[in-house]
Every structure is written in structure tokens, then in C-alpha cells.
Design brief:
Elements lengths: L2 E7 L13 H9 L1 E3 L2 E2 L6 H10 L3 H4 L5 E2 L10 E2 L2 H10 L10 H6 L5 E5 L3 H7 L3 H4 L2 E3 L4 E2 L3 H9 L10 H19 L3 E6 L3 H7 L4 H23 L6 E6 L5 E6 L2 H7 L11 E6 L2 E6 L4 H12 L4 E6 L10 E2 L13 E5 L1 E5 L5 E6 L7 E2 L5 H4 L3 E4 L7 E3 L3 E2 L3 H8 L29 E11 L2 E12 L2 E12 L3
Parallel strand pairs: 1-9, 1-10, 2-21, 3-22, 6-7, 6-9, 11-18, 14-15
Antiparallel strand pairs: 2-20, 4-5, 7-8, 10-20, 11-19, 12-13, 13-16, 14-16, 17-18, 23-24, 24-25
Helix pairs in contact: 2-6, 9-11, 10-11
Length: about 475
């Protein structure tokens, strides 16, 4: 029986998949398919993209707008981090609505199959992998909890207490490989499984992109990935298993940090629970804004103020705001939906290399100059990793046509010969599959969305570039300039 294994590396960039840093993954890429034009979803943060990977939907469709969010249907004035305790609260108040779209676990349940994930990233990333596991089956395994919750005791009893979290987080990832091989694949044999490494994300946040610590984290994660591949080969499982390697987003180096909430308050905008107020939700390289009562006037004033800030890049607004001058619709980048923020910005960025030679610098709501961050519409963060190898994939092929994290679910269902998933944003990556068309035959186009606004004698201008294959759109980058009188 066919099966699929997804191996996620948090924050891994295509430029890091080299024989020096990752010999196992580099060899894997050479033997399979490299998707050279792969895209993260915006904002380029982990939990949102994890949800896109397991639903095939952009954030407007699956309802998780970022790592830190407001869910008005849950609590209209509460800003919270989408982690396991808070997401469990959402599940209790809104059963089945942590995500607004079915996940791999939900869909596979209908075919008598299951999805099991093992992750050592944040609890939020793990939770959104299969938030309905208690109801539909399958499992999520994490050092701090499991879904179903009763599974946590069984895992720790069999494999011992999880190692302490560290940077690099190799000890925990090694334990995850043990659990994946000996228990998940070795015993449960789910039709789809996922294993998630928290590196190089953790090391890059704390020590910077290309730092010695980050490079060590990458090398050690690659060693564990090699151990996983060896087990698949030695047990014969590789003969019937397609392996997809994916990252959630790329990375930038911080130019400077912007403590944005005090700036918003100093500009005269009250807290979001008050009339004319604004809830400010930082997400590293992006910020979400929710106005009190979805007030368009407040949103317009906020947008005009943001446009004059030297750190403000592209700005999108929800359909409910009715079109604010100088902004672009959230629907253009896949963010329009029931939980869309009223406004969202990408911090300004550039493509200059850092001291280690990795392209990409950006402003950030947290961290410190010189460290790593993500969340913007920078090409360095939107471009991420996707590789495929196994019985269903072509060999030694580089695919230049656009792809994205939203394409993983429909491609998996094609591999498994299951009916197509309805109401989905992604497409089947047929050009990478053995039975598909030539890898260089896909027709695709590019375009640019633009907007501008006159501001006290100056002009704010923004543009968002995109690629499209049929009805699936991928954001390539988004940036802005402001020309104000000196």
C-alpha cells in the first residue's frame, strides 16, 4: 500500500540545502524532484503555514491568520498566541472550528485511513496538524502533549521522558525520529505521516542566519534525517513510501526592531476594546490590526499613519473595509476570510546579504538586529523548500514552475489515488509525478498588483508580485516606498 512521509524543517532556506551543510538532504534532492520556485503563504510564519500544509488552503480559508491572532468568533478583543492551551480553549468554545477547513486527518478519516504527526516545534504548530484527532482518529505527538491526550502517557512510558529543549534541538529531534520509526511507521503504519524539526528556526532566531550555532543545528538535523532515510531503506518501507521534504518559510536578518504597540498608542489610537481603538498583533516580520467594531474610518486613519513610517512595507485590507486608498485587498494574497484582520502590514525589507552571505534583511517586531526573523513578503522569506522522492516521483528533475505549501494536500491525494479534495486553493504538482506531463511543460504567468496614496505632499506606493498556474496564485514578493517631502 502506498504511503507518504512529510519531513518538515522549520525555517530552512533553499540556499542551505548544500552538500556541505546537509549532505543527506542534498543527495535526496539530486535523486528526486527539486521544486526550485516554491512559496510560503503570507504572513510567512510557522503555524499559519503548518495549517496550509495540512489543509491545502491559504489563511483566509483555514482561518489561522498568523502565529499571534485575534479570532473574533472566539473573543473579539483577545490577542493570543496560537499555542496548545489557547487553541484547546478555542476547541472547547467552537468545537471543530480551530481551523475552518478540513485537515489531512479529517479527510483521511472518511477513507478509513489515518494521519499521524510527530513534532518538536511549538505546541501550536503540533496542535494545528490534527486538531480534531480526538474525534476523527490519527494522532499528534509532541513533547508537551499528544492528541488524543491519553496517548502522551503511552509515548513517555515507552520511550522515556522527552529530552530537555535545547539549541540546537537535536536531542528532541532524535527522539522524534525514534518514535516515528519504531512506533508511528513501524506499528501504526498511517497512510500519511509527518515529522517536524524545529531547526534551523530556533537557532536562527537566537543566533542569526548562517551563524555557527545555526550551521551546527542544520548539520545535526540532517544527520537525523539521514538516520530516518536509512531506516526506511533497511526495512524496505522506502519501496512503497513517497517522501516530501518541506519548510514552512525562509528567513531574513533583522535590520532593526519596531516596538509597534507603543507607537500606535502614541499616534492616538486607543486599545482595541475601546471606541475607535485598534488591537495590535505583532508577528515578527508582519503585524495584524483589528479595529473596534470593524470601523472603516479608524482603519483608514491607521493605514494613512502606517504609510508614513519608514519601516512599513506592503499593506493589505479586508473586504469589510471597503477599499482603503493605497492598500491592496487581502484576497489577493489569500488572506480574505471569516477571520481576516482589518489591516495587515509586511515590514520593509531588502535583499542585501548578511555577514554569512545569506540574502535578506527586514525590520521586525521582535528579536534584535543581526538575528534571524520571518513574517514579511520578502522573497527571501516567501521562497522555501520542497523536495520529493519515492516511487511516485520523477528522478533527477528540477521543476521551475511555481509551487506552494498549499499544493501538498492535493498532490498527496493524487499519489494515494484518492478523490480530489473539494474547496481547496492548491493544485496537484503533476509535473513532478511519474505519470504527469513533462516537468518543463507547465504554463504559468506572472503579474503585479499596485496601489498608491497621496500623503501630505508625498506619495506611498506599493506593489505585490505574483505567479499563477491555472487558478492557483503564489505571492512572489511585496514591497512599498514612500516619497515624502524633506
Amino acid at each position: 500500500m502506498k504511503s507518504v512521509l512529510i519531513a518538515g524543517f522549520d525555517g530552512l532556506q533553499p540556499a542551505q540545502v548544500t552538500r556541505e551543510l546537509m549532505p543527506n538532504l542534498a543527495a535526496f534532492a539530486t535523486e528526486g524532484v527539486t521544486f526550485a520556485n516554491h512559496h510560503s503563504a503570507f504572513p510567512t510564519v510557522t503555524r499559519l503555514n503548518a495549517a496550509s500544509i495540512v489543509t491545502g488552503r491559504y489563511p483566509g480559508g483555514h482561518g489561522l491568520a498568523a502565529n499571534n491572532v485575534v479570532m473574533r468568533d472566539f473573543d473579539p478583543y483577545r490577542v493570543f498566541s496560537a499555542l496548545e492551551p489557547a487553541l484547546a480553549e478555542v476547541a472547547r468554545k467552537l468545537p471543530g472550528q480551530v481551523l475552518l477547513a478540513p485537515t489531512l486527518g479529517d479527510i483521511l478519516c472518511h477513507y478509513g485511513q489515518e494521519y499521524v504527526s510527530v513534532g518538536v516545534g511549538t505546541t501550536g504548530n503540533a496542535y494545528v496538524q490534527n486538531p480534531n484527532a480526538e474525534l476523527v482518529g490519527g494522532a499528534t505527538i509532541h513533547p508537551e502533549f499528544c492528541l488524543p491526550y491519553s496517548l502522551h502517557y503511552e509515548i513517555t512510558s515507552r520511550f522515556g521522558p522527552w529530552p530537555e529543549e535545547g539549541i540546537p534541538n537535536t536531542a528532541r529531534y532524535s527522539r522524534a525520529v525514534d518514535i516515528m520509526t519504531k512506533y508511528v511507521i513501524g506499528e501504526r503504519r498511517p497512510v500519511v505521516a509527518l515529522i517536524w524539526s524545529s531547526e534551523p528556526d530556533k537557532a536562527q532566531h537566537e543566533h542569526g542566519v548562517g551563524s555557527e550555532v545555526a550551521n551546527t543545528a542544520i548539520r545535526e538535523a540532517d544527520q537525523q534525517f539521514g538516520r530516518l532515510l536509512s531506516w526506511l531503506r533497511d526495512t524496505g518501507v522506502a519501496d512503497e513510501t513517497d517522501v516530501l521534504v518541506v519548510s514552512d518559510h525562509g528567513y531574513s536578518t533583522i535590520i532593526d526592531t519596531v516596538n509597534i504597540e507603543p507607537l500606535v498608542r502614541d499616534a492616538g489610537f486607543p486599545p482595541g476594546s475601546e471606541r475607535d481603538g485598534v488591537l495590535v498583533v505583532p508577528n515578527g516580520g508582519s503585524v495584524l490590526f483589528y479595529t473596534h467594531g470593524k470601523d472603516r474610518l479608524t482603519a483608514d486613519l491607521m493605514a494613512a499613519w502606517l504609510m508614513t513610517r519608514p519601516w512599513c512595507g506592503a499593506i493589505i485590507t479586508s473586504e469589510a473595509m471597503g477599499g482603503i486608498a493605497g492598500t491592496l485587498p487581502a484576497g489577493l494574497v489569500g488572506c480574505e476570510g471569516p477571520r481576516v484582520p482589518d489591516l495587515a502590514i509586511s515590514f520593509r525589507w531588502n535583499s542585501k546579504p548578511n555577514e554569512a552571505g545569506y540574502a535578506g534583511h527586514a525590520y521586525s517586531s521582535g528579536g534584535a538586529p543581526g538575528l534571524g526573523q520571518h513574517g514579511t513578503m520578502s522573497r527571501s522569506e516567501i521562497q522555501n523548500v520542497l523536495l520529493g522522492r519515492g516511487p511516485s516521483f520523477k528522478r533527477g528533475v528540477v521543476v521551475e514552475s511555481p509551487s506552494g505549501n498549499v499544493d501538498i494536500v492535493p498532490t498527496i491525494f493524487r499519489i494515494l489515488d484518492l478523490p480530489p479534495v473539494e474547496s481547496i486553493d492548491g493544485r496537484v504538482l503533476e509535473e513532478a509525478l511519474n505519470e504527469g506531463p513533462s516537468h518543463d511543460s507547465v504554463k504559468w504567468s506572472t503579474g503585479v498588483h499596485t496601489a498608491e496614496r497621496v500623503l501630505e505632499g508625498g506619495v506611498y506606493r506599493q506593489q505585490i508580485s505574483f505567479s499563477r498556474v491555472d487558478s492557483t496564485t503564489y505571492i512572489d514578493e511585496g514591497h512599498a516606498t514612500v516619497d515624502l517631502p524633506r
